[in-house]
Amino acid sequence: MCGIGGLVYTRGTQPCGQDVLDRMAAALQHRGPDGAHFARFPHADLIHTRLSIIDIAGGDQPLSAGSGTLIANGEIYNDPDIRAQIGPEHFTTGSDCESPLRLWERHGADFPRHLRGMYAIALYDSAQDELLLSRDPFGIKPLYFTEFDGGVAFASEPAVLLAANLAPRTASPIARDELLQLQFTTGRESIFKGISRVLPGETVRIVQGRILDRQRLSPLPSPPKTQPPLTEETALAQLDEALMNSVQAHERADVPFGLFLSGGIDSASLLTAMSRLPRPEKLRTWTAVFDAPNAANEAEAAAALARGAQAEHQTVRITANKVWQHLPAIVACMDDPAADYAIIPTWFLAQEATKDVRVILSGEGGDELFAGYGRYRSAVRPWWQGGRRMWRHGMFDSLDILRNRPTRWRDGIMAAEMAAPHAPTRLSTAQAVDIAEWLPNDLLLKLDRCLMAHGLEGRTPLLDPIVADLAWRLPDTLRVRGDKGKWLLRRWLEQHCPAARPFAPKQGFTVPIGAWIAQDGARLGQLVAQQDCIQEIAKPERVRALFQAAAARKTGPAAWTLLFYALWHRTHIRGLAPTGDVFETLNQSS
After folding, report:
1. β-pairing, 457-459 with 359-361?
2. Per-residue pLDDT tens for 301-318?
């Protein structure tokens, strides 16, 4: 895993000085602590910071072939197949990122169609003065760009563009309202005015410093017009083959790797598949447990599963004091903001795992592909049976906290709903909306930033084309049955690891953030309410009351969202570094 960045210039524009590239490289250093390299051309500059995973000795980037120069952040899982097809004699390194470069020589801008993996790639053709920016179809790896008078700048994170003064530290009010109501933002435009996302599966073609066109790959296959009925027995056999294939591909690395284990269906399925593969040393697993009254706790179940798989297991205990001590740094890593309180355990798990491994496998994507969320079951019911549209309520609806009622916060979700006509059923439409927005802009963003903050690569074997192809061909009855989502995945786990008890009621993995806030509600409420960015959008007296009532189910998430936004705004809009724990940071006037 790595960090990438660079600039391409319009003709007549003077290239930037080395100081700009150095600021970008410094801001990317946490993504690539093993070294930084530059490539300078008359009309472009490229930066790569490396986290060495494959071909440690010989895989430095940029990589060049003919007039093409590539920098990449990601892993190409079908690299061995590509090498066999093209011929190993055409390759000069053992890096899996050389495969996209060799494919570009043969297919031009269509090279991503031949890739299986997670990636953000920048490929510059100096002969044509053309830059291609490509992102994997699920959006596992991030990529952003900004247009300026003299061309286009791009980077793995918006914070890199801000650090180099290539974009203003200005938040879009529409995106801010979306963040408050949804806890993430949707679509191409980021929360920063002028900074855009390369969309999942998109390739942006930039010629002579100007965006010329875009093309996009879908993460989901088009459903066949006719297909024979898929029986449960056949589907289970195909799922077993797909899971084992994907997990084996995702384990490919020249460094130690491990697994985040929650005790839920997704991570238990990965553990089960990993335990069936030969390995020279014990698998390592990590589970978070929360120190709070009545907090959901699946640590014992996770530890039992790890023992059954003969894994070396560690439980990471998270307390309120640890959260308040580290929260400014946790929020600071979320430059593209997702106010998902699951960032807290993810960050602490990464902090521990980085002591022993360089790669982590994680179960993101299982709920979206195999229909695990309760909101899916609600979305597919007729209205007279309680069916409801997804994301119908915002976080601050009916709380009387905000000065002005957000009106456009659901625009991005509506656009995703309109863009999913290929889904054959209401259930698959609901899944497609989440795969388009919630997955890349919350779950995967959270995983990427929290792990990269500690120099860890995150891999998601459930988000693989082979797995997705099967999941998208499943009839609804193999996705949801009765009150159980992820039916087929549960059945597979029941066959291969009955100790996981996949049909038992789930305790959940909810972070007790409301209870923690309530313990210091008066102090936190006062500090948050006095922030200028909060006073601009909310009623201070109502904010203080909200924090003191944060233990309630509705008020806790809202209080957390305001706390997150206050810390995020201080770091990424005001440009101030965290200065101590959450109380010290919020108490600083400048």
Report:
1. parallel
2. 899 999 999 999 999 999
Of how many residues is the chain composed? 590
pLDDT digits (tens, 9 = 90+) for 476-512: 999 999 889 999 999 999 999 999 999 988 765 689 9
209 close to 43: Cβ distance less than 8 angstroms: yes
Phi, psi torsion values for 206, nearest 5 degrees: -120, 120
Q: How confident is the model at residue 590 (pLDDT cuts 50, 70, 90)?
A: very low
Q: How far is CA 5 from CA 121, 267, 455, in A?
A: 10, 33, 17
Asked if pLDDT for residue 383 goes beyond 60, the answer is: no
Sign of CA dihedral 322, 328, 333, 336: positive
Using DSSP's 3-state secondary structure scheme, residue 469 falls into helix
Q: Which long-range contacts (CB under 8 A, 24 or more apart) does 412-415 make?
A: 412/178, 412/185, 412/186, 412/187, 412/437, 413/182, 413/186, 413/437, 415/186, 415/187
The answer to whether the CB of 317 falls within 8 A of the CB of 327 is no
Tokens at residue 480, please?
A: 């949801």
Three state DSSP letters for 135-165 = ECCCCCCCCEEEEECCEEEEECCHHHHHHCC
> At a CB cut-off of 8 Å and minimum separation 6, what does 418 contact?
none
Q: What is the pTM of this model?
A: 0.96
Partner residues linked to 68 by β-bridges:
65, 125
